[in-house]
Amino acid sequence: MDIDFIANILFATIRMGTPLLIVAIGELVCEKSGVLNLGQEGMMLMGAVTGFMIAFHTDSLFIGFMGSVVAGALMALLFAVVTMHFYANQVATGLALTILGVGLSGFMGRSYVGEALTNIDFQIPLLSSIPFFGKVLFSHDVLVYISIGLAGAVYWFFKSTRAGLVVKAVGESPESAQSLGLSVLKVRYLAIVFGGAMAGLAGGYLSLIDTPLWAENMTAGRGWIALALVVFASWRVERVVFGAYLFGFMSIMHLVLQSFGLSVSSNLLATLPYVATVVVLVLLSRNQQRIKLFAPMSLGKSFHGAH
What we know:
- By secondary structure, the protein is mainly alpha-helical.
- The chain is built from 14 helices and no strands.
- It has a single domain (3-294), classed as ABC transporter involved in vitamin B12 uptake, BtuC, CATH 1.10.3470.
- The radius of gyration is 20 Å and the shape is globular.
- The model has no long low-confidence stretch (mean pLDDT 90).
């Protein structure tokens, strides 16, 4: 195993983990406010198809990404209205949102199946030519660096700002937060829409950068993995980053093992990241006290306060 091979593995790990990191960070913020949105998969798919359609007709990745963000935010806004104002069950509404996103994205994108965008090679001049580190750290597209900056910003937000404390207060006890004069609905609306925007952005990354093409159900369960990752990370940003890149590494392991001539079905090896997720969740579920300690106390509960 030479150094270039290792550099390629690390490069692919970061690239594969990026969309999961983006959507998981958005879901973490949403859950910190006490809202459980299971619609990540549907919002990602809507972001993916909308971004691809716009970029295909405008020849602009930037406009395509903006479309992805808006599509995800609008889906999240629909979830917010149904759960915040009509007090619908958050779990059922999230599942319905995923079903809606899967079906609607398939309908919208059926005429774009088989179309493709130009695959753009992103590199930072001079730095990308550094042996080993140039490939691993300085040859990624700009959204990889944005995702890392986003994780750092959210970490700082919850660690050092009053607004972050407000979000956590709403997630722990919305009744107490409202008695202190905080607008629970406003905080939750903003958190939900932010989560949706990030899910849309992650979907756009898949169809505009990672592939770049549109295919039905191209998220391949990443929305569900992101939901599990937030629990795996105990609602901590730094652990979300680690978990996202761990999933990215597991996602390419079947290719790595095949390169060593391992005579195992490629389809079986491709299940490795999902098997790893199940194993982690099983291990976590054995310690219920740890989950209760870090989970927002009002997570998934409707708030019947003043509108």
